TrEMBL record:
Family designation: Belongs to the 3-oxoacid CoA-transferase subunit A family.
Pfam families on file: CoA_trans
Single GO molecular function: CoA-transferase activity
Keyword annotations from UniProtKB, A to Z: Transferase
Annotated source species: Streptomyces dysideae
Gene3D superfamilies: Glutaconate Coenzyme A-transferase
InterPro entries according to UniProt: 3-oxoacid_CoA-transf_A, CoA_trans_fam_I, CoA_transf_BS, NagB/RpiA_transferase-like
Annotated NCBIfam families: pcaI_scoA_fam
UniProt keyword Chaperone, yes or no: no
Domain of life from the UniProt record: Bacteria
Protein name, entry field: Succinyl-CoA--3-ketoacid-CoA transferase
PROSITE patterns from the UniProt entry: COA_TRANSF_1 (PS01273)
Length: 251
């Protein structure tokens, strides 16, 4: 039951080239930077990443993206990541863009054992009808586009069929965790982290504070340890290393 692994490098030691990863975080909030850096140090490449975005300010998944280690991204937000946009438009990267709520539910559904579900999000658009560019040829042409999806009517309303997502591994960051893998997330870090953790067949969590089993009130657990296979305790320096994406107050 003790799922604690000594180092981040040890925790990701069996992640192979070409693996699929569900990665938590939103912008700079709740991003498992230490685990991502360990993957970078191992030289893993050809990764298929499922995450809301693909890093920002040369942190998070941007570390792997800039090094050319990511082959495919399933996400909902490109944002101000210019390297992400460059690789996508240049034909170097395959990208499946999904409505944000649909992405969240696809991760949750995969983790809950639900193979597919119907949602009204995207009906009447290329999300349902197909034709969204997944890969460009570098000259403005599209070499791979999204296929059409099944649309079905319920009570007079049309819904599109979306499939649950399962990945080989998941990387998440939590404010607190115990040796059994029970996790607690702090405020907005509880965004995609629990959902990404559910979707991974092997989930690795970096935690800012490691406590003993029983120290977390069961009612306070945000993600049960059944979804977590490995726990890495961060050093105080790693736990405190949190960037600010856009400062909105004066010095």
């Amino acid at each position: 039951m003790d799922k604690v692994v000594a180092t981040a490098l040890e925790a990701v030691a069996d992640v192979p080239d070409g693996a699929t990863l569900a990665v938590g975080g939103f912008g700079l909030s709740g991003v498992p930077n230490v685990l991502i850096r360990a993957l970078y140090e191992r030289g893993v490449s050809g990764l298929g990443v499922v995450s809301n975005n693909c890093g920002a300010m040369e942190s998070g998944l941007a570390v792997l993206l800039s090094a050319g280690r990511i082959a495919r991204v399933t996400g909902s937000y490109i944002g101000a990541n210019k390297e992400f946009a460059r690789q996508y438009l240049g034909g170097e990267l395959e990208v499946e863009m999904i409505p944000q709520g649909t992405l969240a539910e696809r991760l949750r559904a995969g983790g809950a054992g639900i193979p597919a579900f119907y949602t009204p999000a995207g009906v009447g658009t290329q999300v349902a009808e197909g034709g969204l560019p997944w890969r460009y040829d570098g000259s403005g042409g599209v070499t791979l586009a999204s296929p059409p999806k099944e649309v079905r009517e319920f009570d007079g309303v049309e819904y599109v069929l979306e499939h649950g997502i399962r990945t080989d591994f998941a990387l998440v960051r939590a404010a607190k965790g115990d040796r059994h893998g029970n996790l607690v997330f702090n405020k907005s870090t509880r965004n995609f982290n629990p959902l990404a953790a559910m979707a991974g067949r092997v989930t690795i969590a970096e935690v800012e504070e490691l406590v003993e089993p029983g120290e977390i009130d069961p009612d306070a657990v945000h993600l049960p340890g059944i979804f977590v296979q490995r726990v890495v305790a961060l050093t105080p320096e790693q736990a405190a290393d949190k960037g600010i994406e856009r400062r909105t107050v004066s010095s």
